[in-house]
Every structure is written in structure tokens, then in C-alpha cells.
């Protein structure tokens, strides 16, 4: 008797034995059953842990009103309506970004500092350009009521050069 899987001539061909459909169906059914069992098992573990966590939560202070039934999940808008003023920072990063944007807008725009006194503010870049064009303000040495400016090494050297000429 010859083996149906062996080829007599050794030059290719096809398998003489087919895969049975029942084996494939049993495999797929096993995968579905095992997946379903895992799903129900994980749901059971989650329900157990959820019930345990609810039981271990500390009691809420009796002075707090409008407490949600499940304190692990805070409803949107809950702190704003319940807690009295003054409140701590609710959105620290957002508030800080708002403050920084206002400061940058103030530093980069024209506006009045004191309108009655005629004091205005200008952008920093414009102020630096004006400083480069006009230079720093200098006080005259012989102003009435002011003491003479102290001599430094550069003013002394300049004075000596002027005296030699």
C-alpha cells in the first residue's frame, strides 16, 4: 500500500489529503469560547475591584453639601458651583499663560501710562531703536546747584590730551 502524501514521480503535484472543515470550525469555536470566558472573567474582576474601592472610600465631611454619589468621578463644573470663595487656582497653567500674554501685549504695544500727565508707553523694540538713534541722555557738568561730576580715568586722560595740544 502506498502513502497518499508521497508523490511517485517526485515532480510536484498536489496533496492528496485535504484539511477537514470540522477541525477549522472546532478551532474557531474554541477561540470564540475562550475569548468570551476571558471577557466575562475580566468584567467580574473589574466589578469586584470597583465594589471594593467604593467600600474603602473615606466618609465625606458632613459640612460639605451637594456631594456627588460617586466621589471618584467629579462632574464637570462641580467645584465652581459648590466651593465658596476664595478659591484656589483651578487652571494654573491657563491662568499663567493668560498673565504672560497680557504682559507681552503690554510690552509690545503703544498706550497710555498716565493720560493726565501725558506719559505713554512704547514697544521695547521701538525704544531700543530710539536709544540707538539719540543716545543716552547726558547731564551737563556745569549745571547750577549740581556738584561737579567725579573724574574718571577716561575723563582724566581726555583732559590731559587737551592740555598738551
Strand arrangement in the largest pleated sheet: 1-2
Q: What is the mean predicted local confidence, pLDDT?
A: 78
Please count the helical segments. Answer: 5
Number of strands: 2
- Helix/strand class: mainly alpha
Order of helices and strands: HHHEEHH
Helix content: 40-55%
Strand count, sense and barrel status of the largest sheet are: 2 strands, antiparallel
Low-confidence stretches: 156-165
The termini sit apart by: 132 Å
Shape: elongated
Radius of gyration: 43 Å
Write up this protein.
With 165 residues, this protein is mainly alpha-helical. Helix content is 48%, strand content 4%. It has a two-stranded antiparallel sheet. A hairpin with a 4-residue loop joins strand 1 and strand 2 (119-121). 0% of the residues are buried.
Produce a short descriptive summary:
The protein has 165 residues and is mostly helical. The chain has helices at 21-55, 78-82, 92-107, 124-134, 153-164, and strands at residues 111-114, 119-121. The longest helix has 35 residues, at 21-55.
Keywords:
mainly alpha; 165 residues; disordered C terminus; 48% helix; 5 helices
Per-chain topology:
Elements: H1 21-55, H2 78-82, H3 92-107, E1 111-114, E2 119-121, H4 124-134, H5 153-164
Antiparallel strand pairs: 1-2
Amino acid at each position: 500500500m502506498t502513502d497518499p502524501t508521497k508523490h511517485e514521480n517526485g515532480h510536484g503535484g498536489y496533496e492528496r489529503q485535504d484539511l477537514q472543515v470540522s477541525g477549522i470550525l472546532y478551532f474557531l469555536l474554541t477561540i470564540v469560547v475562550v475569548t468570551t470566558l476571558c471577557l466575562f472573567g475580566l468584567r467580574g474582576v473589574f466589578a469586584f475591584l470597583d465594589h471594593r474601592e467604593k467600600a474603602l472610600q473615606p466618609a465625606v465631611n458632613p459640612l460639605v453639601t451637594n456631594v456627588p454619589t460617586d466621589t471618584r468621578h467629579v462632574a464637570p463644573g462641580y467645584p465652581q458651583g459648590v466651593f465658596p470663595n476664595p478659591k484656589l487656582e483651578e487652571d494654573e497653567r491657563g491662568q499663567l499663560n493668560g498673565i504672560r500674554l497680557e504682559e507681552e501685549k503690554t510690552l509690545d504695544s503703544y498706550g497710555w501710562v498716565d493720560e493726565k500727565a501725558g506719559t505713554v508707553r512704547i514697544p521695547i523694540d521701538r525704544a531700543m531703536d530710539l536709544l540707538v538713534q539719540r543716545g543716552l541722555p547726558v547731564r551737563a557738568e556745569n549745571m547750577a546747584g549740581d556738584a561737579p561730576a567725579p573724574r574718571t580715568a577716561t575723563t582724566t586722560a581726555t583732559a590731559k590730551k587737551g592740555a598738551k595740544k
